[in-house]
Design goal:
33% of the residues lie in helices and 26% in strands. The chain is built from 11 helices and 19 strands.
Length: 415
């Protein structure tokens, strides 16, 4: 089979996947027939391979655009690699969290704990001047990220500047883990677990953190899924199972109309009181976890109504030379009691408005130091100073986390 024929076969496979799995709820116009698409595909045979592949990728994009589904798309090979890294919670690089600046050098937020820079002479607020002699001034976050990543074991010379003094050191790229959960013990022996994303292994991290909190004699738990965009549904099933022995976690309805209930997965670790923090940006798997715990009256939901993304996507990788993947919306989902979530979301048991300007937002990898976390928050306040004034920004920064405060008060009353 020629290289073109291999790409053609993958494109036809992708078209069949779209036809058999993509929900038609978003469909706005008729799609071309399979025969017409294949005829169009065959006209690419006279083109250079690179152009033929580009046209095939464009075809997949156009076919999915018929559905006007914001969650279904063709993912090109580069995007698919990044998606896989986020999903699995790891990549090869330096493990540096930073903030790019339009007209200046990027700033260090902090090194990822467990990464190759953890013990280097680097502080939040340091300017990052260059990577292997490449000047970073005014580069975009994507451009900087590409320079930091590379082959495992390769060397990098990083140059920083702190208070006018230059700092340079060599670091070795290695596999870096992204942790999407962190924990701490709060007042009255109430454990707090922040879950920023549902990666493929996040449930293992949450299980570990919960076990450590219980070993410290935690009397209740706050699960914080505010600003969580979701991710792995399997991780959500495992997390729910840590807190309740109910048999079902959520239900899915497919294109055929068939409904499937998804079971729990894993062992119960505790029956102590639980509160779940949610807001307008709690989505997808975050809503699956929160909805199941609410259905079973296992937890009190506190905060603002959730986003309402009640659709399940599946990513189907495609082989080279076409590469990338198609992501389709394969099902609608609801809570164990069949409450549909899409466009509705979850209504919390205790409504507490979210703090303005998302001043308590914490997204992405959370395995950074408290100092790095505090510096990231200071950058948010600085942004607000430019948007409003120093006085207004500082007033925002001084606002308490009312949603967390109510969760702690509610759990203390339950002890």
């Amino acid at each position: 089979m020629s290289t073109f024929q291999q790409a053609r076969a993958q494109c036809i496979r992708a078209l069949d996947i779209i036809d058999t799995t993509q929900l038609s709820v978003f469909q706005q116009r008729e799609t071309q027939s399979r025969e017409a698409l294949i005829q169009q595909l065959d006209t690419f045979a006279t083109l250079p391979l690179e152009d033929a592949v580009t046209n095939m990728q464009h075809m997949l994009h156009e076919v999915l655009s018929v559905y006007n589904d914001p969650f279904a798309n063709y993912i090109n090979p580069k995007q698919h690699k990044s998606y896989t890294e986020r999903r699995t919670g790891g990549f090869v690089g330096l493990g540096l969290k930073y903030r790019s600046q339009k007209e200046a050098y990027p700033l260090v937020i902090g090194a990822l704990l467990g990464g190759p820079l953890e013990k280097q002479d680097m502080l939040p607020g340091d300017q990052i001047i260059s990577v292997n002699e490449t000047d970073l001034k005014a580069l975009s976050s994507r451009e900087i990220s590409a320079l930091l990543k590379g082959e495992s074991g390769s060397k990098v010379i990083l140059k920083l500047q702190r208070d006018g003094q230059a700092i340079a050191f060599e670091a070795t790229r290695q596999a870096v883990q992204l942790h999407y959960a962190r924990a701490e013990m709060m007042e009255s022996n109430i454990g707090y677990i922040k879950i920023s994303r549902f990666g493929g292994k996040t449930h293992e991290r949450v299980k570990q953190l919960l076990g450590e909190l219980l070993a410290q004699n935690a009397k209740a738990i706050v699960l914080d899924v505010r600003d969580n965009p979701g991710g792995s549904t399997r991780a959500a099933r495992n997390m729910m199972s840590l807190f309740d022995q109910a048999p079902w976690v959520y239900c899915e309805q497919y294109k055929t109309g068939a409904v499937r209930r998804l079971p729990r997965e894993g062992d119960v670790l505790t029956d102590i009181p639980v509160a779940v923090l949610v807001n307008e940006y709690s989505m997808s798997s975050a809503e699956i976890l929160a909805g199941a715990l609410q259905d079973y009256q296992r937890a009190t939901l506190i905060g603002a109504p959730t986003y309402g993304k009640g659709l399940i996507q599946k990513v189907f990788p495609l082989q080279a030379p076409l590469g990338g993947a198609v992501r389709t919306t394969i099902a609608m989902y609801g809570t164990p009691s069949h409450r549909l979530l899409h466009g509705r979301g979850l209504v919390p048991d205790i409504y507490i408005p979210s703090a303005p300007e998302r001043i308590y937002k914490e997204t992405g990898s959370v395995n950074i130091t408290d100092e790095a976390r505090a510096f990231r928050r200071s950058l948010l306040i600085k942004d607000l100073q430019e948007k409003y004034s120093e006085q207004v920004a500082n007033a925002y920064g001084a606002l308490p986390d009312a949603q967390l405060d109510v969760a702690l008060t509610t759990l203390k009353a339950a002890l």
